[in-house]
Design brief:
The structure is a single chain. The chain is of the alpha/beta class. The strands form two sheets. Strands 6-7-8-3-9-10 form a six-stranded mixed sheet, sandwiched between helices. It has helices at about 40-50, 70-75, 95-100, 110-120, 125, 140-150, 170-185, 195-200, 220-225, 225-235, 235-240, and strands at about 5-15, 15-25, 30-35, 55-60, 65, 80, 155-160, 185-190, 205-210, 210-220. The chain is globular. About 40% of the residues lie in helices and about 25% in strands. The protein has two domains: about 1-80 and about 155-243, Rossmann fold, CATH 3.40.50; about 85-155, no CATH class. It is built from eleven helices and ten strands. The longest helix has 16 residues, at about 170-185.
Length: about 240
């Protein structure tokens, strides 16, 4: 049984049918990418999974039907979203941001343990634990957003466009971090427009176009089918596919 199973997912924003009956599955320990151009329905899919937008269809996590649950319940169940644009609390320190991320922890001891683990994974955050988040660089804020999500010890981590707006060198470091998380056994559902980087670390991927799944398969299969991806993603985006 997949850790996450999405069947017939639909999301509407008024008259706009943003997601049109898609099916997605994620096995424990996998990194699965959701790829596509702007407006394809990628971010909306992640928001539906964590209960931030009303959705039709069925969403099951670890065997439980979670559609209709409050976001807080879903986080406590083990699903955490790192939203597009980082959205750290700029006036709070790094440590205070992490403390908020630990709100779902059962006890103080587990929160302390998670904090030590994320500081080991993100040494720059340990160095700057007393610095206000709004004064960090974009890459450091992205690290903080991921670290804050990890404080709840998620079984499934949802990453929404983690490379968005970052310099190429910083993008490389963010994907190296995601790879380290994968190597530690973290299950990840990754929304990303940087196709080459996403396919380098993903086990499988889905390509969305206009709210439907246009194609899916292993990362290797999609990497070798760039001419098909171009038909759905457009030349400018699909040109990023590795050859």
């Amino acid at each position: 049984m997949p850790l996450l199973s999405v069947a017939g997912l639909t999301v509407r924003y008024g008259a706009i049918h943003a997601v049109r009956g898609i099916d997605i599955a994620v096995e424990a320990g996998e990194v699965v990418a959701v790829l596509g151009a702007n407006g394809a329905g990628k971010s909306t899919t992640l928001k539906a999974i964590v209960g931030l937008v009303p959705a039709g269809g069925e969403i099951r996590f670890d065997g439980a039907a979670i559609q209709g649950w409050a976001t807080e319940q879903i986080v406590r169940r083990g699903v955490t979203l790192v939203p597009e644009g980082r959205r750290v609390f700029p006036s709070l320190t790094v440590l205070e941001n992490l403390t908020l991320g630990a709100a779902a922890c059962a006890d103080r001891g587990s929160a302390d343990r998670h904090r030590a683990e994320v500081f080991d994974l993100f040494p720059i955050l340990a160095e700057r634990r007393s610095q206000r988040a709004g004064t960090l660089s974009g890459g450091q804020q992205q690290q903080l957003a991921i670290a804050r999500a990890l404080m709840s010890e998620p079984r499934l981590l949802l990453l929404d466009e983690p490379s968005l707006g970052l310099a190429p060198q910083i993008v490389d470091s963010i994907f190296e971090l995601i790879l380290r998380l994968k190597q530690r056994g973290q299950t990840i559902l990754l929304v990303e427009q940087n196709l080459a980087a996403a396919l380098d670390i993903a086990d499988r991927a889905y390509v969305l176009a206009n709210g439907v799944i246009a194609m899916s398969g292993t990362a290797d299969a999609l990497r070798s089918s760039d001419e098909v991806a171009r038909a759905y993603l457009g030349g400018a985006v699909a040109a990023a596919l590795p050859t």
